[in-house]
Amino acid sequence: MTTEPTPAHIARLIDHTLLKPEATTADVDALIAEAAELGTYSVCVSPSMLPLVIPAGSDLKIAVVCGFPSGKHTSAVKAAEAAESVALGADEIDMVIDVGAAKAGDFASVESDIAAVRSAVPAPTVLKVIIESAVLTDDEIVAVSQAAVAAGADFVKTSTGFHPAGGASEHAVRLMSETVAGRLGVKASGGVRTLDDARRMIAAGATRLGVSGSRALLGADAAAGSASAGY
């Protein structure tokens, strides 16, 4: 019998996210404080909010979006944006693919786009690839996930959370997980709002979660348990 992940365990999978265009420096400072309190893995912010001040002694990582939210930037612009973010302290980059290229079946261009960003931000920077899975067919999800593997990414990620078609689904997460087969992580993002949502996504294969309402998802007992979570 598999034990359900506790709120404290789930916290260590969360990128605590604030990507609203109206976000202020004070909002991001509050995000960081909340992330440290809740024991999340990282904060995820827009590149204009860098550099961030992380509390002393904290292991909180900094994730930054790239080509966000449309993905319709040139590869050179995405690469430059990613490189600047890393220079300003980002540990992880969440880039958006050109979804239109995927819809047109031009997966070579998708792979090239990802590879350009990967080249600009080599390991140990973690590169996540946002595929906007709600817009894609199953065959397109598989092909884009394969392109991410071939281009050297570290994660495939379901969604920006900004597309009207929707966010993460268990079906998409499961398909992405089966396609990358442990070679990459899988991040479920967009519409993950409750513990049940999080547990379903983890069961489907998610190894990271993008969450803006982390406190509401985790509940009041999460921070108390975070220190003894074990990972």
What tags apply to this protein structure?
alpha/beta; disordered C terminus; 41% helix; 10 helices; TIM Barrel; 231 residues
Strand content: 15-25%
With strands numbered from the N-terminus, the spatial order across the biggest sheet is 1-2-3-4-5-6-7-8
Task: Assign a percent range to the helix content.
Answer: 40-55%
Radius of gyration: 16 Å
Biggest sheet architecture: 8 strands, parallel, barrel
How many β-strands, per DSSP? 8
Mean pLDDT: 94
Distance between the termini: 21 Å
Tell me the overall shape: globular
Low-confidence stretches: 223-231
* SSE pattern, N- to C-terminal: HEHEEHEHHEHEHEHEHH
Overall CATH architecture: Alpha-Beta Barrel
CATH top level label: Alpha Beta
Q: What fold name goes in the CATH topology slot?
A: TIM Barrel
Q: CATH H level: which superfamily? A: Aldolase class I
Number of domains: 1
Q: SS-based structural class?
A: alpha/beta
Describe the secondary structure blueprint for this structure.
Blueprint: H1 7-11, E1 14-17, H2 25-38, E2 42-45, E3 61-66, H3 75-87, E4 92-96, H4 99-103, H5 107-120, E5 126-130, H6 138-150, E6 155-157, H7 170-180, E7 185-189, H8 195-204, E8 208-211, H9 214-218, H10 222-226
Parallel strand pairs: 1-2, 1-8, 2-3, 3-4, 4-5, 5-6, 6-7, 7-8
Helix pairs in contact: 3-5, 5-6, 6-7
What does this structure look like?
The protein is of the alpha/beta class and 231 residues long. The protein has a single domain, classed as Aldolase class I (TIM Barrel, Alpha-Beta Barrel), CATH 3.20.20.70. The protein contains 10 helices and 8 strands. It has an 8-stranded parallel beta barrel with strand order 1-2-3-4-5-6-7-8, surrounded by 6 helices. Helix 3 packs parallel to helix 5 (107-120), helix 5 packs parallel to helix 6 (138-150) and helix 6 packs across helix 7 (170-180).
